[in-house]
Amino acid sequence: MKHELDKPLLLVADDTPENIDVLAGVLKDDYQIRVATNGTIAFKLLS
């Protein structure tokens, strides 16, 4: 397993909690996951 800081950072933006859970669950071993539940939050995280 990779050290957390060695993983690329990935932003998951979705307003459906189930989709976020599935994506984060599948990708968490290879990516640092950040979550946004709407577009406004996503843009704030990107800036």
Structure in a nutshell:
With 47 residues, the protein is of the alpha+beta class. It contains two helices and two strands, in the order E-H-E-H.
Number of DSSP E strands: 2
Distinct helical segment count: 2
As a percent range, the share of strand residues is 15-25%
Structural class: alpha+beta
Runs with pLDDT <50, length 5+?
none
On the 0 to 100 scale, the average pLDDT is: 94
Radius of gyration: 11 Å
Question: In sequence order, what are the helices and strands, one letter per element?
Answer: EHEH
Number of domains: 1
How can the largest sheet be summarized?
2 strands, parallel
- The neighbouring-strand order within the major sheet is 1-2
Distance between the termini: 29 Å
Global shape? flat
Residue share in helices? 40-55%
Protein name: Response regulatory domain-containing protein
Organism: Vibrio ishigakensis
Question: Can you put this structure into words, describing what you see?
Answer:
This protein is an alpha+beta fold. The chain has one domain (4-46). 40% of the residues lie in helices and 21% in strands. The protein has helices at residues 17-27, 39-46; strands at residues 9-13, 32-36. A two-stranded parallel ribbon has the order 1-2. The longest helix has 11 residues, at 17-27. It is flat and about 30 Å long. 0% of the residues are buried. The mean pLDDT is 94.
